[in-house]
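Entry:
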Amino acid sequence: MSNLLKRREPFRFMVWLGIASSVLLFTILLATYVVRSTGTGWAEVRLPNVFLISTVVILLSSLSLHNANNAFRTERFAQYRSNMSVTLMLGILFILLQAWGWRQMVLAGVGLQGNPAGGFVYILSGLHLVHILLGLIFLMVALAEAMRRRHYVDSFVYSVNPPNQLKLKLISLYWHFVDVLWVGLFLFLLVHHGVEWKLLG
């Protein structure tokens, strides 16, 4: 069993390496944002109100995933499946809300060309959306495996398998990270002097 866990450790390392790389990437982008905002041609960008709604949605998805983990550990497998389904649906809803927010920005005249502030908002939110899509793939795989094991015995055997436990932990770690990442990005855009908060549409 210990050898099996050791073989799984590279997956944990890969997840943490990916998280560290993402933090570095966004840190560079935010630093560039701050430096560029002091230059010429920079104008305030009004964020759509749907970005606030999407922030609430992504936080709720972390809560439902937390509940799924608790259900998994306590052998409440029906609740585990339902909470994983809710997490997946909230993740999809987040993507739809982000797309709606982009549409509101386009209708408000904020594009990739011209004002660099608008371009940064699209780049930051777009890169984060790529992270969300990757997380959704992981969630769909975990949910599909859970749906194939509806009988209690099958679910129990699956749940006590250390590699499966590690898989759920790593998926949860990654998803919570992308949730926190969005909250951080949203707050940065909200409080930074280069972006003005206003309800659009």
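The chain is about 80% helix and 5% strand.
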